[in-house]
TrEMBL record:
Its EC number(s): 3.6.3.20
The protein's name: ABC transporter
Domain of life from the UniProt record: Bacteria
Pfam family, one: ABC_tran
Family: Belongs to the ABC transporter superfamily.
Record-annotated membrane-spanning stretches: none
Taxonomic source organism: Bifidobacterium subtile
Domain ABC transporter: 4-233
Length: 233
């Protein structure tokens, strides 16, 4: 059984259905990317997976439990983590303080969880005392992902993590996502417009257009052009 199973999912805003008949799954330790142009419905789909939008049809099972009607905070407690678009952090607090806001909730495990997250992005240790608002966009994104990693999620959901980020840090983030899946056994859902970043190291991908999956395939560098072509249709 897959860790996440989505079957026939419809969702939207009020009476307007934006996403239709979505079927996909994610296994533990698997990176699944969802790519599509602006307005395809990518963020709407993520909101439904997180419980931020109601599911009007279909079901969502996570870790063997039906969570279709489960509140967002309960989904997080069950092992979902979400890194939203836009490099979220407390700008007036230091990097160290941003990480401890999450880590200190875990009592005796706080240091171990903190160290695990920082090991993924060593630059955060170097800049521990710097205000988060003074970091580059890429560094703030690394901080956002590290904060989510402290929770030791079973499933990491990332929304457009490369937006406005310099290429060298984009490569570091891609490597970190691959390590999450391979080394830590975390399931990953990545939503992106940048097809090469999303697909070349993913295990599988889906192309979303007008609220529906119109193509899918195995990940890898040789699949990038096929996905781009599907997005142009």
């Amino acid at each position: 059984m897959a860790m996440l199973e989505v079957k026939g999912l419809d969702t939207g805003y009020g009476k307007v259905t934006v996403v239709n008949g979505i079927d996909f799954d994610v296994n533990a330790g698997e990176w699944v990317s969802i790519v599509g142009n602006n307005g395809a419905g990518k963020t709407t789909l993520l909101k439904a997976l997180l419980g931020l939008l109601p599911t009007s049809a279909g079901s969502v099972d996570f870790d063997g439990t039906d969570i279709t009607r489960t509140a967002p905070n309960q989904r997080i407690r069950k092992g979902m983590a979400f890194v939203p678009q836009g490099q979220q952090s407390f700008g007036t607090m230091s990097v160290d303080e941003n990480l401890h806001v999450v880590a200190d909730r875990y009592g005796s495990e706080a240091k171990e969880r903190y160290d695990e997250a920082v090991a993924m992005f060593p630059i955060l240790k170097e800049f521990a005392g710097r205000r988060a608002g003074l970091l580059s966009g890429g560094q703030r994104q690394q901080l956002s992902i590290a904060r989510a990693l402290i929770t030791r999620p079973k499933l990491m959901i990332l929304d457009e993590p490369t937006e406005g980020i310099q290429p060298n840090i984009v490569a570091e983030i891609q490597q970190a996502i691959r390590a999450m899946a391979e080394d830590k056994g975390i399931g990953v859902i990545l939503v992106e417009q940048k097809v090469q970043f999303a697909i070349e190291r993913a295990d599988r991908y889906y192309v979303l257009a007008s609220g529906r999956f119109i193509a899918s395939g195995e990940g890898g560098p040789d699949q990038v052009e096929a996905a781009k072509e599907a997005m142009r249709v």
